Amino acid sequence: MISYSNNPFVYTLIFLLSIGNTIAFSSSSSPHTQDPNLVVDEVNRSVFNASRRSLAYLSCRTGNPIDDCWRCDPNWETNRQRLADCAIGFGKHAIGGRGGRIYVVTDPANDDPVSPRQGTLRHAVTQEEPLWIIFKRDMVIRLKKELIITSFKTIDGRGSSVHITDGPCIKIHYATNIIIHGINIHDCKPGSAGMIRDGPRHTGWWIKSDGDAVAIFGGKHVWIDHCSFSNCDDGLIDAIHGSTAITISNNHMTHHDKVMLLGHHDSYTQDKNMQVTIACRHGYFHVVNNDYTHWEMYAIGGSASPTIFSQGNRFLAPNTRFNKEVTKHEDAPESKWRHWNWRSEGDILLNGAYFRQSGARSSSTYARASSLSARPSSLVGSITTTAGTLSCRRGRRC
Predict the structure, then answer these.
(1) Pick from 39, 180, 293, 343: CA 20 to 30 A from residue 150's CA?
(2) Has residue 129 got a pLDDT over 90?
(3) Among residues 150, 164, 155, which one has the least CA distance to residue 135?
């Protein structure tokens, strides 16, 4: 399994899940596959240009290219769909419900998994048409079964404090063009098997869910931005079974064992060339500008000989003496993992934290594992200050 463990304060600035090659082994064999090198170059240009613009006189620009795309506009509430133009990385083509009508969720309380009422979130996400879903007021939504999201939907929590909690949470199942923005998702529980509405005219039998915050199963063109996740029974975000073209950005992930599962199983070789920014099996992974504190088992884990390049991160180890190691080489004896290419560069290691490097030391080995240019690790605190849900007020810059 691919996971990293119990990071009570894990923030993501630009968390690019570069899963452009999960469906096909050749980047040219599928019309949906993007050249990872071109995407990396584009991300680096976006970050560089945003950093330059942030120096402009009287500019509200932050140097975060995603936020700078929309947050400076005090009229964001009347121009919500501008957000769909702002993703970068492999999920940049996720348009969500852009071009569709605004659907206002008014009823947080009456979740009917089979016959959802109009005005509920479940009714909104199971419609056939593209929809931009917003919320009339602050609300807490407790789902009775998993929320199955259909294609071309945006769930936009800006302007309201929206919590999905204390029950099954979100599933993206072979759906495309999904944006989830500004939602608090926490304390998710496994859901029992049963009938669930999964489209405007279809209800199907779904097996027991695992208790993930967001489970992406065969999904593509997905963007999850400025959400806050914590304390779910299984993973916070799972992307499996050939899920592709995903960007996860500006999120705050807390109090959890297994923050992410990326890829189904070591034997599921459709994921072999997957390029992801954090902890994996197979493939090439870039761990950049994250803040890890007080993990229980490890901060970064991998199996099946991944190449991992940790750059510009801050690792604060827990006080327990046996949990100081940042890394965990999963399911392999030392005779094998000592040849895996794992490297730390520019990381800050605090309270006895240590990173066990292995394999090659040359920079060229890790070039393919680089997804963006890291900032110095001393800037991690300032980089991540606006991670998670934002406090947006109508008529003001968000």
Answers:
(1) 39
(2) yes
(3) 155
Tokens of 146: 């998993």
pLDDT at 26: 26
Amino acid at 355: F
Q: Note the pLDDT of residue 213.
A: 93
pLDDT in tens, 257-284: 554 444 444 444 444 433 333 333 345 5
Please count the helices (runs of H) and the strands (runs of E) in the chain. Answer: 5, 29
Lowest mean pLDDT among 107-111, 183-187, 243-247, 375-379: 375-379
Return the number of other C-beta atoms located less than 10 Å from residue 23's C-beta: 18
Query: What residues does 14 pair with on adjacent strands?
Result: 249
Query: Each residue of 145-169: b (16+ CB within 10 Å) or e?
Result: bbbbbbbbbbbbbbbbebbbbebbb
Q: How far is CA 99 from the centre of its chain?
A: 24
Tell me the per-residue pLDDT of 7-48, one tens digit each, with 9 for 90 and over. Answer: 444 444 444 443 332 222 222 334 345 555 566 556 656 655
Specify the range with the lowest mean pLDDT, choosing from 41-45, 147-151, 290-294. Answer: 41-45
Question: Which CATH code fits 10-270?
Answer: 2.160.20.10
Which amino acid type is present at position 57? Y
- If one counts every other C-beta atom within 10 angstroms of the C-beta of residue 126, the result is 22
* Bridge partners of residue 315, in order along the sequence: 292, 349
132 in Cβ contact with 156 (< 8 Å): yes
Would you say 88 and 43 are in contact if contact means Cβ atoms under 8 Å apart? yes
- Tokens 């509430």 belong to 77
Whether residue 286 contacts residue 40, with contact meaning beta carbons closer than 8 Å, is answered with no
Beta-ladder partners of 140:
163
